[in-house]
Each structure stands twice: as C-alpha cells, then as structure tokens.
C-alpha cells in the first residue's frame, strides 16, 4: 500500500479496496517504525490524521468525494498549520503553534487530504542538504550516509521511503527539485505566483514558491490543481484560472521542441549524471520531441545574483523574529538590545545567521547599488535569456543537479561549495518559471533527476512531458531498499 | 570561482557593525570564523561586479506584475486571546519588553 | 548676529480609512490594547500585506488638491529598523517613487498676506504601534492596535521662516485634509503629527545651517512653542560661536524645552529596498481623473468665492472658509437670512466668539444655522434690534428654542406701534424738563447729540424693545 501513487490510492479508496483510515494507520505505523533512521518528520499528528481520515471515509461512502479525498500526505514544516507546531526547522519557532492555516494547507484540506505530519527541512528553507535543521539532519533513504538534498529534504525523504505518497514542499532556489532529484521522486516548482504564499513562512519573498512532491508527474498534477489559484490575501498571487492539469498528461510529444542549454552540460556536470540525462533526452526524442541546443548566456551570473537577492530579502523577512510576540525569547534579557541580539543569536542557526548578515551587508548604505540593485538588473538579464530561448523551444531540459546526493557532512563546512550545488536550479526561481525534477536514472545506486523548465504558467506542458517520460521508463517506480544501501 | 584579488576587504569590525544592524550577537570567539566565511561568500557574489548591466531596469518581480488593490473593508475580528496565548510575555493585553528608552 | 530660521515640516497624517493600509483590521481609535491587531499587523510568520485602495485614493486626492504630480507608478519599500512597536522589523513606506510628487499651496498669515509653500512629496506608509511606558515591573507594554494604520507623510520644502508661518502652514494643511475628508485631522488623538526640521543661518545667506529634527509635536500650540524654543537654543549656541549638532530631539511640553532623543543615538541605516511582498502601484489616467471628479471645493477656492460672491474682505472670507463645517454653516445662514454680510458678521463675531469661549467646535454648536438665520431675519424685518438679538442668541445658545420662540416667550418683539410709543415719549419728555430746556436752547448741530438722551430713556422704558426709528420720528415731532 505504501508504494502506491496518489492516483492508485485514490482509485483504491473509490473502489473500496481499503479505507482512508486503513491507509492512514498503515502509514503512521511506518513512520513510527522507520522514520528514526531518516528523521524526515518533525511532528506527526496521529489523532487529527485519523479524525480527518474518518471524515474522508464518510465522504467516500456518501459518494461525495473528490480526487484527493482521503489521501494522506505531509506538509513541509514551513506551512503554518492551525493548532500544530510549525517550526520551520528552527529553534526560533520550536514552540510556535500558529492559530491559522497556510492557504496551501487550507486548500489541500478542503480537497479532502489527510495530514500525517510536518516534515523536516533546512532552517527557514536555507540549505541544500537538510543538515541545517534544529531537529537534526535528514538521511537519504537511498543511502543514509548521504544527504536527501534541501531544503525540502524531509518531504523528499518521506516520499522516497514510502512514509507518505506525497508531500508539499517549497522552492526558493531548488528546494523542491534538488531533493526530489536526490531522493528519486518527482517534484514541481510552479510559476512564481501560481500558488499562494500566505501562511508559508517567508524566506525570500520574490523567489519562494510552493509545490507538490510525489512519485509521479500525474500525482503532481493532481496536487497542483488543488494547491494552485488566486489568493486575494497574497498580492503576488496571480489571478488567472487554474487549468485541468491532468487533461493533457497523455498528449503525445510529437512536435515538442526541447532546448538544451549549452551552459547546463559543460564543466561541473558529473559524467555519469550527464549520461543519465542524455539517455533520458534520447527517450524524449524517441517519443517525437526534437532536441535543440540553446544558450543562456548570462548563466554565469546566476549564483552571485541569487546569493545577493535571496539573503537580502531573507535578512529583512527574518527581522520579525525578535522574541516579542511569539517564538523563542532568550532568558532574562538585561535590556531591549539584549532581548533582540541574544534571542536572535540563540534562536537562529549558523547558516541562517550568515545569510542574514550577508543580506544586511548587501542592503546597507553604500552597498545597495553595487549589490542589490545590480543583482536585480542581472536578474532581468537572466530572465530575458529564458524568454529568448522560449521563442525557439517549448521546454528546456537539463540536469537538476551536477551529481547524485553527496555525503552527510561533506560540504557543511564550506558554504560556497554548498551554494554551487544549486547551479542548475537557481535561475528558474530568478526568472519565476515553472520547473520540475523527474527521476532519470541511478548513479552508484543513487538517483539523479532530469530538470524540465517551462514558460510561465505552462506547468501542464511540463507535466505532460514528464508523464510521457514516466510511461516509458521506470525510474520513478524504483524504491530504495529499506534502510538504504548503507 | 572565488578569486582572492576581488575579495572585498570585510574585516571583523565591519562584521560587528553589520551584526549590530541585524541585531545578532556574535560571541567574541566566533567573530573571526564568521568573518572568514562571509568574506568567502562576498568574494563569490562579487563576481557579479564584472557583469555589464548598463541601462538594464532592475527586476523586482519575474512577471513584471502590478499591485492589485483591496476594497477598504474591515474583515478581521479580535483574536487577541489566540494570538497572545503564544506570546512570551503579556500583561493586561500588552506585549511586554524590557524598558524602552526614548 | 541676526539669524534667519529655515524650517521644514514633515507631517504624518492618519488617513480616515475604515481598515488598515495592509490588512482588514479596523482603525478605530481608543480600542482595548491589541484587539485591533490581526495576524498581519502582528507580523505573524507567513502573513502578507495587501494594499487598501482607499488609502491610495486619499493620497491621490491630496496630490490633486495641491496640484502635485501624481506618481503613476509608485513603489513601496521596506525601511528596516528594530523597535518593539514595529512588529515586522521594517516599516512599509515609499522611498524613491512616492505616490505624490512636488506640489504647493498657499497659506494665509495673520497680517492678511499670503505665501506659497512648496510640498516636496507625500508618500504612503504604515503607522507603528504604541509603547506604553507605565511601569509593568520595569518593563514597557506594547499595543499594536495602531500598527498598520495608513499614514500619508507630507514633506514640505524648507520654505517656512518662523513659528507663526509654521503654524499657518499646519492650519492650512489641516483645513485642506479635512475639506478633502481624507483625515479627521484630530491632533489630540494623533491623527496629525508633526516633525520639525529647523536650522539657522545668517540673515541674507542662502546656504543652510546644521539642522535639528524635533519629533512628534502634536498640537499647533506646541509646534509654535517648540520652534520658538529651538530658535532660541540654536541662536544661543551660534552666538557663543558654537556649532549645532545634527540630531533628533524631543519636545517636552511640560518643561517647554527640546532635548536629544537617547534611542536615536545609534546611526541608522534603514536599508531601504523595494518591498517584495507588494508590487508597483500603477495608476491609470482614467482612475486618477475619476478621483479628480470627486474633489470638493478646496479651502482657497471657497475663500475666493466667498470674497467675490458675498463681497467679504479676504481675511473674513479666509476665516469663514477655514473649515468645511464652518463654511457650510455660514453659507446656510447667509442663504436663509438673505443677507450675507450680516450673516458673516454674526458667524464670525457672535458665533465664533461664543464657540471659543466654550471651547467648542462648530460641529457641536447648539444653535443650528436655520435658527441663526431666523434671528437675522428678525433684525432685518425690524422685529428686534441688534441689541435684543444678542439676548435672543444667548437664549438660543442655552437651548430655549429658535429665535421666534425665544422672542415670543420672552416678549422681546420690538414695539413699533405709534400709540404705545407716543405714550412713552410723552412720559419721558414730561419727566425731563431740564433736558428739554437744554434741547430747545441748542442749535441744530447740538440737538442731534442731545436727542440721544431721549431715545435712550425711551429704550430703557421699553426694555429695549422700542423701534428706534419710530422713536426718533416721534421725538423730532414732539420736541419741535
């Protein structure tokens, strides 16, 4: 049961092969029994999950069910959940129980899903390895000596380990796609503004976007349809109808033009990973797509641009954590300044503090033009590169990451080396485009991902491409052996 | 990627100034390590300086979208009890902080 | 040395919207602490701002009112600093692209002259909460009800030269914004707060001296006193050959002095950058024009109209047009009474005098315009004299009803009946033999003066109700 996809579970529920309570109980037992080795959950909510599973079963029995009614899933611990602790992987919010739900949580609950718990993550979504969590590192189910990727590492690991069929994630610079690639699952970062950010703890406002993480493109389509849509409480949410993302999943790929950016296949891409990507592209070509070499000439600006904009926005987004209204507060502050500086010293982890300092520096007097403004200009150049490519091609494809999951601790002492891991994913956030990672092979027993990038609001085309690929391949059905290969 | 010649000369004093602005205490024995790592990051991002961005308009939103306006209606109700139940220190409905000096 | 003060004002105006600028919380003044602070206002994690259309409309109304350029593409920025009454750790404000650009308007001075004052810009921003310094075991209490109330910050050019001009500017601004209905302008409740930038320079110089900023001065009177004090303080320093320190000071009304603010000692670096949770505000021409259509007659337009239409001098017209309710009151009285000059005189002298004495505003005036108009009609139709009218007015003020009711109840109607008056004139002449003799002996010129005595006696006898014209005619006839 735990290896079924969302679509399969939905069928089983409708056909009364099992009840939502049975699936929920089974998965909760798996989490209780197995998650000690992965650490993918921060919080589980057994009672609430069983209660909503029972309610879902009633709706199923009454014939009043939608496609997601009774489907268990998990939320990244960045989404506020009313009455359930929302830590964002930080000591700062270790005691934070929000009295409200994020729009994503609300929509998925309204669709009938059952929340099993909250998944582990890099603190405030800052990280590419899930080692920056107050609750400890997450282990990759394929190899527990390796990282699962980050920042949505808990969601990716939980899906890969068969603890949940799907989970929500957020992606500011690759935080859905990179862990999806490392854990051998399918993840989609939609167009900026497609899904409401309300109630999602902010990292970098102009880059953050929520999305689904699951085993298949079809599941991502089902989830995206429930998550997407205009939210008048988020000014950056786009008021545009939500298409039926499942409608075109099976459409043949004949005539699809796929662009391969020269810059994504050069130095830095590990050979074995490159081979997997080439094989995947060959499969798409076999299905009738044409492969076109394209160029994103400003790609070399991506990493510095991102690592100015994201920390700058984060540095002020995180100013609200001051020990006054909620969250962590240091003991016995001597005065107001002590309250602020010690609360923030003790409440934030090292990487978060580093990014706040870098962002503060980039915005401070005398540096604004050289850093932030310059980065916003470079950001336009980077986006315009993509828009130019999309005049020639329908989809851009390449590797999600330079290689498969790296070892725990391997890069945690070198922030810059860690940042370079995101080289292929960051630009998509800067440009606000939809991007996906699809399992595309194994390198030394560890998954690698094919990244697909689409035009703004063309999630359906990405899902179609990924789905057709998954109809012809079985990488997405592979599951790690229990306990990984360690 | 990081060429030491372009490394901005950020020193511990400047780090402490930035930390003061960001209201983050850095323990004395950690200033050197923090400075070192931040200098590395700044050296990396400094490669952007070489980019030609003449006449490029800064982009704040990838869709170049514009703001929508909300009707002037009261939609919120008093939820003080729920909000203050999760506050570190409150009294008589007020949030408490160490004495503020004007 | 003779020093010339150079003064610019920054006025923070709370806009009269129902809900806050970025959230759906109410903006009512005086609610229980933190009962009007929503998750957005409290900066709870994941909360986002959405811009209130009415706040933008009010700002644009102000801009159109002062003939300013309207920012068709304005941008909100974050102004970053830590303070317990600022929950997000930044204030959403407008820095480089404000909604209102350069404009100007005319102020009237006490001596009747007028001056044009430049407005540098006006921008939208959110108000902060309040720190309550009463003692909570040595701690400060924070009330965030006010956090997120829309503010329009109006920055003047340094065009003002003394305290009186600054006050005149503030009064004119107050008049404008209340005319526009974009703010209640209630200074006591903090709806209009003023920061004063002030520096001195040698008279005749055109360079600027070092300025001090005086924060949060909240009444016309305190603005005047704070400026006066600051001019004295700075000129003392300069006269002694010292230098003024650029700093932020607080005005202490109890001690009538300004002193430096301790909390602002650390140099601020606000790290302004475009607020990524909001998008640029783009205003279409049609929208702006639709707002223009809703503009009421502005104070100076009304003043000019009053002067022309009612033949009032500029000063009187200015007094009557200073506030919209007063102007409306005056116009109602003038219309119903049928004589604008007398109406203007009554409103300005009797009514405003009485209001001032009771420290009341026109809004709480106990005498409705219709009643005052009726009173004036009774003067005009000779039912009562001007003197009696003042009595009637006092009675109306005390709530004794409209003019006719008071006149009837108190029997104040003027006596014009010749028979009745003739008896009184006879009685006076009979009792004033000496004065009659004197009168008869006097020449024509002197007689005119002496007749006043007889008129006075008749008025006294009639308790002021005799029609003076009829009395004069009778006396002229009887005394020969």
TrEMBL record, chain A:
InterPro entries listed in its UniProt record: Amidase, Amidase_CS, Amidase_dom, AS_sf, GatA
Gene Ontology MF term list: ATP binding; glutaminyl-tRNA synthase (glutamine-hydrolyzing) activity
Alphabetically ordered keywords of this record: ATP-binding, Ligase, Nucleotide-binding, Protein biosynthesis
Statement: the UniProt record of this protein carries the keyword Nucleotide-binding: yes
Catalytic reactions of this protein: L-glutamyl-tRNA(Gln) + L-glutamine + ATP + H2O = L-glutaminyl-tRNA(Gln) + L-glutamate + ADP + phosphate + H(+)
GO cellular component, one term: glutamyl-tRNA(Gln) amidotransferase complex
PROSITE patterns to which the protein is assigned, alphabetical: AMIDASES
Enzyme Commission number(s) of this protein: 6.3.5.7
Active site (catalytic residues): 76, 151, 175
GO biological process: translation
Amidase domain residues: 22-463
Residues making up the signal peptide according to the UniProt record: none
PANTHER family on file: GLUTAMYL-TRNA(GLN) AMIDOTRANSFERASE SUBUNIT A, TRANSAMIDASE
Subunit (UniProt): Heterotrimer of A, B and C subunits.
Family under the similarity heading: Belongs to the amidase family. GatA subfamily.
Function: Allows the formation of correctly charged Gln-tRNA(Gln) through the transamidation of misacylated Glu-tRNA(Gln) in organisms which lack glutaminyl-tRNA synthetase. The reaction takes place in the presence of glutamine and ATP through an activated gamma-phospho-Glu-tRNA(Gln).
Protein name: Glutamyl-tRNA(Gln) amidotransferase subunit A
Source species of the chain: Parahaliea mediterranea
UniProtKB/TrEMBL annotation, chain B:
Protein name: Aspartyl/glutamyl-tRNA(Asn/Gln) amidotransferase subunit C
EC number: 6.3.5.-
Catalysis: reaction(s): L-glutamyl-tRNA(Gln) + L-glutamine + ATP + H2O = L-glutaminyl-tRNA(Gln) + L-glutamate + ADP + phosphate + H(+); L-aspartyl-tRNA(Asn) + L-glutamine + ATP + H2O = L-asparaginyl-tRNA(Asn) + L-glutamate + ADP + phosphate + 2 H(+)
GO molecular function: ATP binding; glutaminyl-tRNA synthase (glutamine-hydrolyzing) activity
GO biological process: glutaminyl-tRNAGln biosynthesis via transamidation; regulation of translational fidelity; translation
Function: Allows the formation of correctly charged Asn-tRNA(Asn) or Gln-tRNA(Gln) through the transamidation of misacylated Asp-tRNA(Asn) or Glu-tRNA(Gln) in organisms which lack either or both of asparaginyl-tRNA or glutaminyl-tRNA synthetases. The reaction takes place in the presence of glutamine and ATP through an activated phospho-Asp-tRNA(Asn) or phospho-Glu-tRNA(Gln).
UniProt subunit comment: Heterotrimer of A, B and C subunits.
One Pfam family named in its UniProt record: GatC
Species this protein is from: Parahaliea mediterranea
HAMAP family tied to this protein: GatC
Keywords on record: ATP-binding, Ligase, Nucleotide-binding, Protein biosynthesis
Family the UniProt entry places it in: Belongs to the GatC family.
InterPro entries the UniProt entry points to: Asp/Glu-ADT_sf_sub_c (IPR036113), GatC (IPR003837)
Automatic annotation (TrEMBL), chain C:
Domain Asn/Gln amidotransferase: 328-479
EC number(s) per entry: 6.3.5.-
InterPro entries: Asn/Gln-tRNA_amidoTrfase_suB/E (IPR017959), Asn/Gln-tRNA_Trfase_suB/E_cat (IPR006075), Asn/Gln_amidotransferase (IPR018027), Asn/Gln_tRNA_amidoTrase-B-like (IPR003789), GatB (IPR004413), GatB_C_1 (IPR042114), GatB_Yqey_C_2 (IPR023168), Gln-tRNA_amidoTrfase_suB_CS (IPR017958)
Top enzyme category: ligase
Catalyzed reaction equations: L-glutamyl-tRNA(Gln) + L-glutamine + ATP + H2O = L-glutaminyl-tRNA(Gln) + L-glutamate + ADP + phosphate + H(+); L-aspartyl-tRNA(Asn) + L-glutamine + ATP + H2O = L-asparaginyl-tRNA(Asn) + L-glutamate + ADP + phosphate + 2 H(+)
Keywords of the record: ATP-binding, Ligase, Nucleotide-binding, Protein biosynthesis
Family: Belongs to the GatB/GatE family. GatB subfamily.
Complexes and interactors: Heterotrimer of A, B and C subunits.
NCBIfam families: gatB, PRK05477.1-2, PRK05477.1-4, PRK05477.1-5
The protein's name: Aspartyl/glutamyl-tRNA(Asn/Gln) amidotransferase subunit B
Gene: gatB
């Amino acid at each position: 049961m735990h290896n079924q996809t969302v679509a399969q579970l939905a069928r089983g529920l409708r056909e009364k092969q099992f009840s939502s309570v049975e699936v929920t109980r089974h998965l909760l037992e798996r989490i209780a029994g197995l998650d000690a080795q992965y650490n993918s959950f921060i919080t589980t909510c057994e009672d609430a999950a069983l209660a909503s599973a029972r309610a879902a079963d009633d709706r199923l029995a009454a014939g009043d069910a939608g496609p997601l009614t009774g489907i268990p899933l998990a939320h990244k611990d960045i989404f506020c959940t009313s009455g359930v602790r929302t830590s964002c992987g930080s000591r700062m919010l270790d005691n934070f129980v929000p009295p409200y739900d994020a729009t994503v949580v609300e929509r998925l609950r309204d669709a009938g899903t059952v929340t099993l718990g909250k998944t582990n993550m890099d603190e405030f979504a800052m990280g590419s390895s899930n080692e920056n969590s107050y609750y400890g590192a997450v282990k990759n189910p394929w190899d527990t000596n390796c990282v699962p990727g980050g920042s949505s590492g808990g969601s990716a690991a939980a899906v890969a380990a068969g603890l949940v069929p799907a989970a929500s994630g957020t992606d500011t610079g690759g935080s859905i796609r990179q862990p999806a690639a490392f854990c051998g699952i399918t993840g989609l970062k939609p167009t900026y503004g497609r899904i409401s950010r309300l109630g999602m703890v902010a990292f970098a406002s102009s880059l953050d976007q929520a999305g689904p993480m699951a085993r298949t493109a079809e599941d991502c389509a089902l989830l995206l349809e429930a998550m997407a849509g205009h939210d008048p409480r988020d000014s950056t949410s786009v008021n545009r109808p939500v298409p039926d993302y499942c409608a075109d999943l099976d459409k043949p790929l004949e005539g699809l033009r796929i662009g391969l950016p020269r810059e994504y296949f050069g130095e830095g891409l590990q050979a074995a990973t490159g081979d997997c990507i080439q094989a995947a592209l060959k499969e798409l070509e076999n299905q009738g797509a044409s492969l076109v070499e394209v160029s994103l000439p400003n790609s070399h600006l991506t990493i510095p641009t991102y690592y100015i904009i994201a920390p700058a926005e984060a540095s002020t987004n995180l100013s609200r954590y001051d020990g006054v209204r909620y969250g962590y507060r240091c003991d016995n502050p001597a005065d107001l300044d002590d309250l602020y500086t010690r609360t923030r010293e003790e409440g934030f982890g090292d990487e978060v503090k580093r990014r706040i300092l870098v962002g503060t520096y980039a915005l401070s007097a005398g540096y604004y033009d050289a850093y932030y403004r310059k980065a916003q200009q470079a950001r336009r150049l980077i986006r315009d590169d993509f828009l130019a490519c999309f005049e020639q091609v329908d989809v851009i494809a390449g590797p999600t990451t330079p290689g498969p999951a790296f070892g725990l601790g391997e890069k945690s002492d070198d922030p810059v080396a860690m940042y370079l891991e995101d080289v292929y994913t960051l630009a998509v956030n800067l440009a606000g485009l939809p991007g996906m990672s699809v399992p595309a092979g194994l390198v030394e027993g560890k998954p690698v991902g094919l990244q697909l990038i689409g035009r703004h609001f063309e999630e359906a085309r990405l899902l179609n491409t990924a789905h057709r690929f998954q109809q012809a391949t079985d990488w997405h059905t592979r599951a790690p052996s229990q306990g990984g290969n360690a | 990627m990081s060429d030491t010649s372009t490394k901005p000369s950020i020193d511990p004093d400047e780090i402490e100034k930035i930390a003061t602005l960001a209201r983050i205490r850095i323990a004395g024995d950690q200033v050197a390590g923090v400075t070192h790592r931040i200098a590395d990051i700044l050296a990396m991002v400094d490669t952007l300086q070489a980019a030609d961005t003449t006449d490029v308009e800064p982009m704040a939103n990838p869709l170049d979208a514009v703001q929508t306006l909300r009707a002037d209606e009261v939609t919120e109700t008093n939820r003080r009890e729920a909000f203050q139940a999760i506050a570190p220190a409150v009294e008589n409905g007020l949030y408490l902080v160490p004495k503020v000096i004007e | 040395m003779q020093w010339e003060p150079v003064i610019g004002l920054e006025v923070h105006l709370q806009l009269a919207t129902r809900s806050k600028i970025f959230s759906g919380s109410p903006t009512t003044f005086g609610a229980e602490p933190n009962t009007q602070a929503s998750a957005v206002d409290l900066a709870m994690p994941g909360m986002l701002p959405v811009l209130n259309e009415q706040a933008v409309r009010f700002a644009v109304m102000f801009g159109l009112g002062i003939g300013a350029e309207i920012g068709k593409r304005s941008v909100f920025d974050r102004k970053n600093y830590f303070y317990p009454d600022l929950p997000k750790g930044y204030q959403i404000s407008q820095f480089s692209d404000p909604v209102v650009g350069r404009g100007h308007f005319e102020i009237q001075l006490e001596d009747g002259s007028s001056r044009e004052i430049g407005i540098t810009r006006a921008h939208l921003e959110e108000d902060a909460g309040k720190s309550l310094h009463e003692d909570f075991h040595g701690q400060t209490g924070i009330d965030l009800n006010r956090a997120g109330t829309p503010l329009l910050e109006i920055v003047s050019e340094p065009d003002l030269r003394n305290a009186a001009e600054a006050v005149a500017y503030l009064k004119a601004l107050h008049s404008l914004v209340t005319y526009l209905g974009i703010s209640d302008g209630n200074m006591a409740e903090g709806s209009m707060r003023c920061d004063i930038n002030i520096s001195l320079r040698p008279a005749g110089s055109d360079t600027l001296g070092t300025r001090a900023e005086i924060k949060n001065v909240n009444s016309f009177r305190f603005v005047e006193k704070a400026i006066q004090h600051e001019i004295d303080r700075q000129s003392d320093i300069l006269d002694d050959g010292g230098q003024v320190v650029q700093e932020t000071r607080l005005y202490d009304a109890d001690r009538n002095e300004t002193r430096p603010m301790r909390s602002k000692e650390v140099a601020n670096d606000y790290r302004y950058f475009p607020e990524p949770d909001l998008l640029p505000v783009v205003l279409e021409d049609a929208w702006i024009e639709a707002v223009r259509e809703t503009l009421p007659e502005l104070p100076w337009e009304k003043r000019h109209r009053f002067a022309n239409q009612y033949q009032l001098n500029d000063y009187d017209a200015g007094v009557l047009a200073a506030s919209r309710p007063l102007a409306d009151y005056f116009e109602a009285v003038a219309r119903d009474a049928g004589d604008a000059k007398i109406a203007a005189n009554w409103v300005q002298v009797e009514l405003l005098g009485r209001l001032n004495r009771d420290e009341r505003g026109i809004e709480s005036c106990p005498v409705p315009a219709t009643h005052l108009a009726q009173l004036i009609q009774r003067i005009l139709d000779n039912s009562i004299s001007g003197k009696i009218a003042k009595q009637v007015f006092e009675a109306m003020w005390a709530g004794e009803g409209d003019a006719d009711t008071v006149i009837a109840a108190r029997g104040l109607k003027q006596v014009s009946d010749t028979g009745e008056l003739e008896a009184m004139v006879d009685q006076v002449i009979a009792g004033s033999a000496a004065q009659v003799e004197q009168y008869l002996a006097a020449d024509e010129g002197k007689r005119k003066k002496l007749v006043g005595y007889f008129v006075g006696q008749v008025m006294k006898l009639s308790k002021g109700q005799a029609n003076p014209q009829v009395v004069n005619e009778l006396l002229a006839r009887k005394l020969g």
